[in-house]
Amino acid sequence: MQKIHSPTSPSTPRVRHRRRSNEVFPDLGKLNGNNLLLNDHDKYKSMWVRAYSSLWMLLGFAVTLYLGHLYIWAMIVLIQILMVTELFNLLRRAHEDRRLPGFRLLNWHFFFTAMLFVYGRILSQQLVNTVTNDKFFYKLVSSVLKYQMVICYFLYIAGFMWFILTLKKKMYKYQFSQYAWTHMILIVVFTQSSFTVATIFEGIFWFLLPASLIVINDVAAYFFGFFFGKTPLIKLSPKKTWEGFIGASVATMISAFVLANFLGCFQWLTCPRKDLSTGWLQCDPGPLFKPEYFSLPGWVPQWFPWKEISVLPVQWHALCFGLFASIIAPFGGFFASGFKRAFNIKDFGDSIPGHGGFTDRMDCQMVMAVFAYIYHQSFILPRNNPVEMMLDQILRSLTLEEQKTLYIMLEEILEERQLGMF
Predict the structure, then answer these.
(1) What are 310's strand-pairing partners?
(2) Among 52, 150, 224, 276, which is disulfide-ready with 247 (CB 3.0 to 4.6 Å)?
(3) Distance between CA 415 and CA 348 in Å, rounded?
């Protein structure tokens, strides 16, 4: 039996259907206010879960602060590992991973190589100062630091060769996308965390104040939006409102001025740490942490108990941190919201009840950490004179024996010059 083919009219145009985007956007009704916290029926349950988790995080953070710089650095490393785990899992597919044994191990090889490179560069001077009194460890640490860049380079090359040797047919696209994704994660995570660690050893104050302002801004935005939010702020985050944004900005600016005065009274927080020990610190607080007194104007009522007020100069700098934390840093959260919307996920993880994952909590902190370091280096840190710069370079580059040799040679040169003057 002959098959009958239906004739196709040449005049009928061929219709091509456009591929629909998988991106999910909120409904118009939600954008008009139905999805705001003010109208959320489960908002009180969510608030208590969030508050309970926040309390435990606050207690853990307070204990870590009490223990000192080294433990804060360890906390940063732990948060890094948790963030990287969440981000590694974002594009991972179980079916492909089963066909690529050892591929996850390669990701962590790149992670620890990056950690060795970044922290070796940042904490080299603190590490040397810690082992100065022990001749064996001083030589060992000095040698490792001297060849640290070479060691990290060949570790990376080993990972690169490992990746090339594990390439499999029909898996190229997935493997190269994972390779690129791994490097992007490491750049983003280690950029901000390296700035954070560098700031910690300049004084816990310069780490604690910006981090606290981000938390204050986030909590204030949540509660102002919870009770007063009616006007949607941005489509990427349907629950964010203008009332929450403005209320949080005012609260953050006030908190920045007051909190800087309180934290600036503790030398444990303001003194820089020159080594990796955990002992208590004492130092000259410097002009930023010495109060300046201002007399109140004559129109102040006589019954007012104070005739003058004291202000730490660092409080004026704190206003800049508060302004950045309330106006610019929230865009880190908006970026994360858009990123999650692109991958059609609600949170990066579920390790913190009511908050999501650690990446969800660190989005604004990452932006703030970079700003805090740049601001401190540009406007706070005093400019070193040439003698201090040269001395710092000698301490970083020469071993203890070489420093003694330099001292003897310099002493001989100065003695010869003094004799030549008579």
Answers:
(1) 293
(2) 224
(3) 66
